[in-house]
Write a structure and sequence with these properties.
458 residues; alpha/beta; 7-stranded mixed beta sheet; 4-stranded antiparallel beta sheet; 21 strands; globular
Length: 458
């Protein structure tokens, strides 16, 4: 009996020992090189790298979710380029300077391909909400607060933060939520020239609680009356890049501060935004416009709760996959000198583009561009020159009443001034698209100016 007990005891010890040895062997196999060895994600990583390696001549991209021909993703070519590998240039093409696609930051993310990549497991966040029953990642919110503290462009301490599907969702959520403060319909206004989406959204989502009433300056004499106002303040402004303040004052005036471009790429940061409601977007911060992510920083808890309710009913929050990607992206931004690397890259790129295009346009008396004064930037800790996202072009000749039409004749697509509630003598030219787009735009403008000079000489 004793012998049998000893044998069982020996077997138990042997089993435990073997188990420990096996686990140690597995741990050494996994961590021996100092890195976690890939298992289920290996295939996904290999697939992503294979698509990224497809050669598109530097004038296009292949994507995992792009069109597939003969089992291989095809190149999606930049404007004016075509062919299987985007190597065929069309010299007579029309140049697109209309859209605000922030592709100027793509080279930065190529340099940080490894640290910014995200592999999403098939079972990642399959439920509707997080463990706390909210639609907001607490870690992502923490990183956003950390980013604003590092950049110094917004006060977040003691404030509430709500996420939205891009800033566009938050803009209408803010209008709806603020309009509930008044017993009469709120008049929604903005200072000309203003971002067209303010008018388009307000009119599209027709409501008895609010209506769009155009230029804020037209209502200055009424802001102290019993009429309720909601004013959009875009700073820096889209389209002219100016730092702006509210036009209307008074107890019946609510404000929405759109700070989509209030980052060191595009403007000096003189002080942190400290208004009641400010809105930001990942689109113009990191260039990831397609991820559709924005956030609002709010002082008043009641307003915060209304906006949370709006977003919850509208879309049940922001995609969990999007929040994961944005979290990864912001960690890269913060890990690189608290944002200094991406902002230095962005500022240098935008400053170079602005200087080249504005210098070219200054050679002609036919056009003029906006003036932006140098200003001290608390982030870079120096006085810095302009680096706006757009050129706000004006036709100076009496006969050139439609600036956008003049551009079209030069095979340039701009955005007409009347889209921004301004005169048709103005047009917006985007500086934030890809390098190909900017180079083509610069060449077209140079040709237009040169032709104009030649005609003047004759």
């Amino acid at each position: 009996m004793m012998t049998m007990t000893k044998i069982k005891s020996f077997n138990s010890v042997l089993c435990v020992s073997c188990s420990v040895i096996l686990n140690l062997f597995m741990l050494m196999n996994i961590y021996g090189s100092g890195e976690w060895k890939l298992s289920w994600s290996r295939r996904a990583a290999a697939e992503a790298e294979a698509v990224a390696a497809i050669e598109c001549s530097g004038h296009g991209e292949a994507f995992l979710d792009g069109l597939v021909l003969e089992g291989r993703p095809v190149c999606e070519c930049n404007a004016c380029y075509g062919g299987p590998d985007c190597s065929q240039f069309s010299p007579g093409c029309v140049v697109d300077a209309d859209s605000g696609n922030p592709l100027f930051l793509e080279p930065f993310w190529r340099e940080h391909a490894g640290s910014s990549a995200v592999v999403i497991a098939g079972w990642h966040r399959m439920g509707y909400s997080f463990d706390d029953q909210s639609f907001i990642s607490q870690e992502l919110e923490r990183q956003i607060r950390k980013l604003h503290a590092s950049v110094g462009n917004a006060v977040t301490e003691g404030r509430f933060i709500v996420f939205g599907s891009g800033s566009i969702q938050l803009l209408i959520a803010a209008v709806h939520s603020l309009s509930l403060n008044s017993s009469s319909p709120s008049k929604v206004v903005a200072s000309t020239p203003f971002y067209a989406a303010y008018k388009m959204q307000t009119e599209f989502f027709k409501s008895l609680d609010f209506e769009f009433e155009g230029d804020a300056s037209l209502w200055k004499n009424n802001s102290e009356s019993n009429m309720a106002f909601i004013e959009f303040i875009t700073s820096p402004n889209n389209p002219d890049g100016q730092l702006k303040k509210a036009v209307l004052q008074g107890s019946s005036v609510e404000t929405i501060h759109d700070h989509a471009y209030y980052w060191p790429h595009f403007t000096a940061i003189p002080a942190p935004a400290d208004e009641d409601l400010v809105i930001f977007t990942i689109s113009k911060l990191t260039g990831h416009a397609g991820s559709r992510f924005g956030w609002a920083v709010i002082k008043d808890e009641a307003l915060y709760q209304r906006m949370v309710t709006f977003v919850g009913l509208n879309t049940m929050g922001v995609s969990r996959d999007t929040q994961l990607r944005v979290l990864k992206i912001l960690k890269v931004v913060l890990n690189e000198g608290g944002g200094r690397e991406i902002f230095q890259f962005g500022y240098s790129t935008m400053k170079d583009r602005w200087e080249k295009l504005s210098k070219t346009i200054s050679k002609s008396k036919r056009f003029s561009v906006q003036e932006i004064e140098p200003q001290y930037c608390t982030f870079f800790q120096k006085i810095r020159g302009p680096s706006p996202a757009y050129v706000w072009l004006k036709s100076e000749r009496e006969e050139d009443r439609d600036c956008n039409l003049v551009l079209k004749k030069a095979k340039i697509i701009g955005r007409a001034g009347d889209v921004f509630n301004a005169e048709s003598r103005y047009a917006r030219l985007s500086l934030i698209r890809s390098r190909d787009d900017f180079d083509l735009l610069l060449n077209r403008v140079e040709a237009m100016i040169s032709l104009d000079d030649g005609a003047a000489t004759i």
